């Protein structure tokens, strides 16, 4: 869990000794444990070995500059959660925007004003602690929740979510393209992604601190194909097609659009399905389709 107050560890990354000394003294007087790095490369090595609670990062350094250093921190699962506050003598808007695009949470301009830096650090450490506590609560509840950044890259995930996502994320831990596109479509409340073992249903939980988008993932058993439903439940081909799409969560209007029939005709088919399955609701029919429909699946269909 991220620490705040006297237990917090702050790393200062700057290639100018005078800046390091001044900030080191100010932070120690503020009650923080301080670590220093004089280059982006050393900062990355140190952060991976033992992640600090916050990083004060000089934007312009020889070699690996602060922007690239921040990008690399955010690509690593073990360090992407660390709040990064940029230090820069540049007030140009493009450089400020670039810092945020790299994953920074804030920036301070040089010459550094220690009291301002201390206030900003305290605020961001408090935010990070609240986020960590929220994540721990989700872990304890056993929920499958994932937070993604603007590039649709996983920032953090509960253990269950990470297990379900491990086979569908790309090398940069980004969601598949279709899921990335869905995240940007506010009008679509959920998205289904089939895997070898289950159907993953993604829905939005809102934005987390720092602008990350939180998603809830729910697992659903695979719905048998219509042919399997015909064999197992003695339905007509058309009834089996309607039940298949109903079991996938489609409304009568949506099923009608898929099967090129009116919603009223869909409803008539559902009435016949309910009678044959001896059920009264769509949920009950879906349960029968999933449980008994598998019996009609041949080894070649599996």
Key attributes of the depicted protein:
single chain; 302 residues; alpha/beta; Rossmann fold; Beta-Lactamase; Arc Repressor Mutant, subunit A; five-stranded parallel beta sheet; five-stranded antiparallel beta sheet; Sig_transdc_resp-reg_C-effctor; transcription cis-regulatory region binding; two-component regulatory system; WalR-like; DNA-binding
Rounded radius of gyration (Å): 26 Å
Q: Estimate nothing, just give the exact number of structural domains.
A: 3
Any idea of the CATH class of the largest domain?
Alpha Beta
The largest beta-sheet arranges its strands as 2-1-3-4-5
Rounded mean pLDDT score: 85
Biggest sheet statistics: 5 strands, parallel
Domain Response regulatory: 9-125
Protein name: LuxR family two component transcriptional regulator
Domain HTH luxR-type: 228-293
Keywords: DNA-binding, Phosphoprotein, Transcription, Transcription regulation, Two-component regulatory system
Structure description:
- This is LuxR family two component transcriptional regulator.
- The chain has 302 residues and is an alpha/beta fold.
- It folds into 3 domains: 5-135, 3-Layer(aba) Sandwich (Rossmann fold); 142-220, Beta-Lactamase (2-Layer Sandwich), CATH 3.30.450.20; 226-296, Arc Repressor Mutant, subunit A.
- 46% of the residues lie in helices and 18% in strands.
- The strands form 2 sheets. Strands 2-1-3-4-5 form a 5-stranded parallel β-sheet, with helices on both faces. Strands 7-6-10-9-8 form a 5-stranded antiparallel β-sheet, with helices on one face.
- α1 (17-29) links the parallel β1 (9-13) and β2.
- α2 packs parallel to α3 (66-75) and α8 crosses α9.
- The longest helix is centred in the middle third of the chain and has 28 residues, at 114-141.
- The chain is elongated, with a radius of gyration of 26 Å.
- 33% of the residues are buried.
- Mean pLDDT is 85; it is low at 296-302.
